[in-house]
Design brief:
The protein is of the alpha/beta class. 40% of the residues lie in helices and 22% in strands. Helix 11 packs parallel to helix 17. The chain is globular, with a radius of gyration of 25 Å.
């Protein structure tokens, strides 16, 4: 197995990288955070000082080697620092999703056996307190934001600022012990434990070592020539491996600055203010931004709309070629330059993408139309394919080889193979150590030679060697007549339309495909206002006849597109309905990373699926929902079921040849 050369032996942990950065560029900004509308910065030297004081404070509280430290909250420097401080003490950081309800949080806290919990604010503290009657091993709760915490029982609770102050005061008592623990850290020590999204069951604790994270960070930084001059915005869940590798692994290896927005609500504003040079987002973020652009263009004046449409046509035709440095006619190049002055430049500035040198999307497949839109603007957006178990990187797209229908070539140091079943397998320096306390799942996922089953179906393209992912292996099936069924392919095409927030396609083993559609309330609500359509709720708007007509037009346009792919033409949608509620992670219908839990949806909405296939025009249903405060309720609705036109498949010329 080919491994990239290991990093120097003295750089085999995150604390070691922190110390190197503080030595080499002490005055360069390492972290920024926006609070109360003002950006505050910390240099690498200042960050190291804060983190060491925090680690000594943890030692004063009794943090032992091998302890698990749960970290819950929005992206903040103090929470990133708490992960590094835990590592310095020989403990294992375990970030949790901040929007997880108390029950989900209880499972992870119990499974990892956390003794310490670091919370961002009162809301997260309350969740921990709610489950402490069942989770008895939590000994210390530490919180960052003091607001609302004054009257709590502080016998086993401390403000993080007080922990840091205690660490500074106890410097002479704990400095030697801390240095000893840091010096003990090696490649095999656990760097972080991250829990999977749990699309098929309970989340699994993925143990990633220092070797996994640091070698992967090194290889990926070299792949895209990342340096300490980069700026990133850390806004994705800290419990997600994507945020950890970008905001911790790569940031520590390259030494670039991590910027934390004030809140999810201000993220887009903060993105514009920072203007990152390196940006990562799952497809849903790019979909949401495109939706906002399209809404604004629909509201724009006639001249502005005409300019946008005219120059976007030029951009789609020649933008990607110009971005890749391929030959383009002089007239087209001049037209694109004018478009950049009038349309693309101002639009990129509005989106916060003016300075992006490298952008990535991953997590699930992005619709080709969405992907091509951003590249047409001159944004170097690329796809990568990864997993938590791989420390993210399995494949990447090299500059000049970027396409919407592949996920690129193997990342440095990664080996790939396709099994006879079509499932993709990999092994790499980033391959996880094990699933925590789950040897059965570890053995079924990773074999004795280190090959990991991804659960995804794919194939290598002849000639280019690029990997194409069809769908989740468990989701790919056959129609009743034997034609291939790959739902994600169709769902991504539907989600290109600003009015479609989510789609779930059914058809495995059946005569034809059907779909559930979630409308985007912002986009469709804006459209309804422009067209004089009154509505009082999401449910009322979703059931409006004109909304159904609009969605039917989108479905039929997607069907015409799907028909052009001979391999997947059987996936055209014959019937659909618009759901009366948004699919929600709190209701178990989505994971915390907003991936569809198909099996749960099929069970929960079996009556609606049955109605789509038995020819009914409407169906009455009652659905249990979970409110933000955890209470349960029910929504009753009568849904319309609609037909959509399909078209004959384009003949497979390759087969004819």
């Amino acid at each position: 197995m080919a491994h990239p050369a290991e990093a120097p032996a003295d750089l085999c942990s995150i604390p070691a990288l922190l110390a190197r950065n503080a030595r080499q560029f002490p005055e360069r900004d390492a972290y920024r955070e926006k609070e109360f509308g003002i950006w505050q910065s910390w240099t690498w030297a200042q960050a190291q000082d804060e983190i060491r004081a925090m680690a000594m404070g943890f030692l004063a509280l009794g943090l032992a080697r091998g302890d698990h430290v749960a970290i819950i909250g929005r992206n903040r420097p103090a929470l990133y620092w708490s992960m590094v401080a835990a590592q310095m003490c020989g403990a294992v950081p375990v970030p949790l999703y901040q929007d997880a309800v108390a029950e989900e949080m209880a499972y992870v806290l119990d499974h990892c056996g956390a003794r310490f919990v670091v919370c961002g604010d009162q809301e997260q503290v309350d969740k921990v307190i709610e489950v402490q009657d069942r989770i008895h091993h939590v000994e210390q709760v530490v919180y960052v934001d003091k607001r609302g915490m004054r009257k709590y029982d502080h016998s086993r609770m401390n403000a993080l600022a007080d922990v840091v102050a205690e660490g500074r005061a106890a410097h002479h008592r704990f400095a030697a012990e801390l240095d000893t623990r840091i010096s003990e850290l090696g490649w095999a020590h656990t760097c972080v434990m991250l829990y999977t999204s749990g699309t098929t069951g309970k989340p699994k604790g993925v143990v990633l070592s220092n070797r996994n994270i640091i070698l992967t960070a090194r290889a990926s930084c070299e792949f895209d020539h990342l340096t300490q001059a980069e700026e990133i915005l850390a806004y994705l869940p800290m419990a997600w491996v994507g945020d950890f590798i970008f905001s911790m692994g790569q940031a520590m290896w390259a030494g670039f600055c991590v910027n934390c927005p004030e809140s999810p609500a201000t993220m887009l504003t903060d993105l514009r203010e920072i203007g990152p040079t390196y940006f990562f987002a799952p497809p849903r973020v790019f979909e949401q931004q495109l939706t906002q652009v399209m809404i604004r263009m629909e509201d724009a004046g006639r001249t502005k709309k005409w300019l946008f449409d005219r120059f976007m046509a030029v951009a789609r035709r020649v933008g990607p070629a110009i971005l890749d440095g391929r030959p383009v006619a002089t007239a087209d190049r001049l037209a694109y330059a004018l478009g950049n002055l009038l349309v693309y430049g101002p639009l990129k500035n509005t989106l916060g993408f003016s300075r992006i040198r490298v952008g990535y999307t991953a997590g699930e497949a992005i619709g080709p139309e969405i992907f091509d839109f951003y590249r047409a603007l001159g944004i170097n957006l690329k796809q990568l394919y990864g997993q938590t178990e791989a420390s993210v990187f399995i494949t990447q797209q090299p500059d000049g080889q970027v396409r919407s229908d592949t996920v690129g070539v193997p990342s440095p140091g990664v080996e790939l193979r396709i099994a006879e079943t079509g499932e993709v397998f990999y092994r790499s320096p980033g391959t996880f150590v094990e699933y925590f306390r789950n040897p059965e799942s570890t053995a079924s996922t990773k074999d004795a030679e280190g090959w990991v089953a991804t659960g995804d179906a794919g194939f290598f393209e002849e000639g280019s060697g690029h990997l194409r992912i069809i769908d989740r292996a468990k989701d790919v099936g056959r129609m009743a007549d034997g034609r291939l069924f790959a739902p994600k392919y169709v769902e991504n095409k539907l989600k290109f339309y600003p009015s479609v927030l989510e789609a779930v396609v059914f058809g495995n083993g059946r005569a034809f495909c059907t779909a559930f559609v979630n409308i985007d309330l912002t986009a469709v609500g804006n459209w309804a206002e422009r067209n004089g359509i009154a509505y009082a709720s999401y449910q009322e708007l979703a059931g409006h006849p004109r909304v159904y007509d609009m969605i039917r037009a989108h479905v039929e346009e997607v069907n015409r597109s799907v028909a052009q792919d001979p391999m997947l033409s059987g996936c055209q949608i014959h019937r659909f309905l618009i759901l009366h509620k948004e699919l929600d992670a709190d209701d178990g219908e989505l994971t915390r990373t907003r991936k569809v839990r198909r099996r749960i949806i099929e069970e929960k909405y079996a009556d609606l699926i049955a109605a789509l296939y038995d020819g009914r025009d409407s169906v009455s249903t009652e659905t249990e929902v979970t409110y933000e405060d955890g209470r349960k309720g029910a929504i009753r609705a009568t849904l319309r079921l609609a037909d959509a036109a399909t078209v004959a498949a384009t003949p497979d010329r390759r087969a004819a040849a």
